[in-house]
Every structure is written in structure tokens, then in C-alpha cells.
Amino acid sequence: MNVGATLGTPDAPLAVDPGATDAPEGVDAAAGTELAVVEPEPLDANDARDRRLVRRARAGDGRAFEELIHLYQHRIFGLVLRMIGNRQEAEDVAQEVFITVHRALASYRGEGRFYTWLYRIATNTCKNRIKYLRGRNFHRSVPVDETPEAQAPTGEGGATASLQSQVAGPEATVEGSRLEAAIQAELAELEPEHRLLIVLRDVQGMSYSDILRITGLQEGTLKSRLHRARLALKDRLRPYMK
Amino acid sequence: MAIPNDNSAERMTAYLDAELDAAEAEQFEQFLDESPEARAELEDLRKVMKLVGSLGETLAPPDFAEKVSRKIRRRAMLDPSSGLLGLVTLPFQVICIVVILVIGALNMMAQLDAQPQAVERDPAADPQPQDGFDDAAGQDAPLPIVR
After folding, report:
1. B17-72: per-residue pLDDT in tens?
2. CB contact under 8 A, B10 and A94
3. Among A95, A120, A91, which Cα is nearest to A107's?
4. What is the pLDDT of residues A40-63, one digit of tens each?
5. CB neighbours (10 Å) of residue B68?
6. Least CB-CB distance to A234: which of B6, B48, B68?
7. Window 38-77 of B, Cβ < 8 Å to A
8. Inter-CA distances, B63 with A86, A95, B33, Å
9. How far is residue A99's CA from residue B127's CA, in Å, rounded to a whole number?
């Protein structure tokens, strides 16, 4: 899934309280310690649509917010699932993300793209949940691909089995499923900061500029950290690399 | 170690992600030609990226949006600042509690007025003296001497 930037016409900014901030409640302030100076975000037709929906949602239109959920639920759920590694927990966290967004809409200034703001909330919610689960010695009791939902075909709430579909036949499907579960398990063993960059860049195919805006990292830091993340994952995935 | 410093690591990442311009990419390829270790590492990282990139796209459950909307509505109902309970302000709640307590107390007093015997006949409140003993004599009083 590539959610990279597309150039387009900027929409009119949202009229909001000038004292308001885009940082929602519950967002980890520490995440902003390496804030980079990032150039203004180019906006496209999708951003204009998001802004219209946000404006309506802020005015109390519940259907507009539901539309926003429908637009971003799969991306956010995918991000959270790859970060947390447990389907039930991921669903709960993803729901929490949208609830936080709904609560924080009043403080959204609309200066940047809605979806980078949404992703910032999602990544911080994930980090907080991971910290909490570590404190409770949480183990991923129900792996990503062992739930009925995960086994459902595409379009029915299941994972699209790209690894499974590369080779035909039931054995290949099982093998692909195992490989995917193994990669997910190794991914989940990485440090959360490394995991996040791998998921954003290599799984979701985001552009550097979007990742910089979401994480608040400097470009050099992003590249070196991404390199270390890939090296760490390479050591873990060595048995699966042919 | 194929990558001697952070700058090279950054360049390798940028090269893998096609984020180098043409001149920088050419320069980096020259470096790769001179360093088989770096080339091997680059190939390994490509394989890692391919494996991770082939992870299945995940879809949210079909009722995800509905569940979120339901939770938002429920929280709005319970939120004292904006929901239905928002109408019930703190002073109003305090007044309600006081009124309930007063009504309860009045009701109890009315019951006591209607049945005063109930209290007087309570053996715990007014124990009956035993036969042959003076009412005035308490339990600790000495026994009367009978001649």
C-alpha cells in the first residue's frame, strides 16, 4: 500500500482557535524531541476532501467522521497490527486512535495534511500501548494470522495473503502463511522505534517526507535509524532469506 | 563491517529507497564496486525489504467503523461536559442528594410517629426485669438476702 504524497492544489485552511494545537491529548510529548524543520506539505484532492470532512465532523456531523473512519481504517489498522502483533489488541488500539482523533478534532488546526496528523496520533498511541503491554509482560497470545478474521478472504476483514498467493497450491498457501507469521513475529521483536520505521517505509510504502512529518525526526536520523532497523531485521530474518 | 560510518549508512538507505539524485547514486555505486562487503550487505537488505514488503495488506474488521462510532456515542453520553449527563451539573447533583436524604429522614420520622410502641417494645432497647427482682436493681446489684 503506497500512501505517498501527490502534488495538488491546497485547500483553504480551516478556521480554528489560533491558540489551539494540533497535538491531541494523550500523545507522548517525548516523541517530539527531535522535531525537524519540515517544508510545508503539498496538498492534493484527497487532502481537500479530508478537510471538508473534518470541517463537517467538527460541526457535529457524525456521518462525516464515519466517512473519515472508512477512508483510513485499513491503513491505521494495518499500521497498528504490524506494530502490536496481536489482532484483538490491534483492533482495540485502532479504535482508540479514532476516538482520540474525534476528541482532538477541535484542536486540529488544519495546517498540514489530515492523514499525517492521524498517523502521528496512531504511532503515539501504539508506542504508549506497547509500553503499557511491556509493563504487564504481555505476550502476543493470538498471533496476527491465527484468528478467523485473518483467515477470511480479502474484502471480508481478513489479511490479503500476498505471500500465500505467490505460489499456487494448498501447501504453498500454508508455507506462505507460516512465512508471513514468522516475518511478523521477527518484526515484533524489534525496538518499537525501528519497527515503526520499517512498517511505515517498507510495509506501507510511505515517502520520506511523510515519515519525517509523522515521526518528527531529522532526515539524517531517519536514514541512519532505518538502516539500523533493517540490519536488525536482517539478522532476525536470516533463516528465511534464500 | 561494510558500512564504515553513519554517513555511508544513510547513503545506503537513501540508495535502497531511490532517494539519491543521479550524481549521488553514481558515486555510491562506485563505492559499491570497490567494496564487495558493502554490496553484499546491500543485497541482503534488498532481500529483507522484499520479504517485509510482501507482508499481506491487512484490512480492518467489517464492523470496525460501526464499533468506533458506537464507542464515541457511548463516551459522549457519559461525558459530563458534553453529553446527556452534562445537563446534570454538580450543584444539581448535590441538591438531588440533599433532597433524597431529607425525604428519607422525613419518611423515617413519620413512621416512628405512627408506631411509637414498636420502639418501646424493643427488648434490646428496654430489657424486661427477671421475676422476683426489683426493677430498680441492676444486673450488677447484690442479691437480696432471704431469711
Report:
1. 999 999 999 999 999 999 999 999 999 999 999 999 988 788 999 999 999 999 99
2. no
3. A120
4. 666 788 889 999 999 999 998 999
5. 23
6. B48
7. 41, 44-45, 47-49, 51-62, 64-65, 67-69, 71-72, 75
8. 18, 11, 53
9. 65
Phi and psi torsions of A205, nearest 5°:
65, 35
Measured torsion, CA atoms of residues A159, A161, A162, A167, in degrees rounded to the nearest 10 = 180
What global pTM score does this model have? 0.68
The answer for residues whose C-beta is within 8 angstroms of residue A66's C-beta and 6 or more apart is: B65, B69
In chain A the first and final C-alpha atoms are separated, in Å, by 25
CA distance B47 to chain A (A): 7
- Residue A161 in contact with partner chain B when CB distance is under 8 A: yes
Pair A47, A6: CB distance under 8 Å: no
The cell numbers describing B13, all together, are: 538507505
CA atoms within 13 A on the CB side of A134: 11
Interface check for A151 against chain B (CB to CB < 8 A): the answer is no
The ipTM value here is 0.70
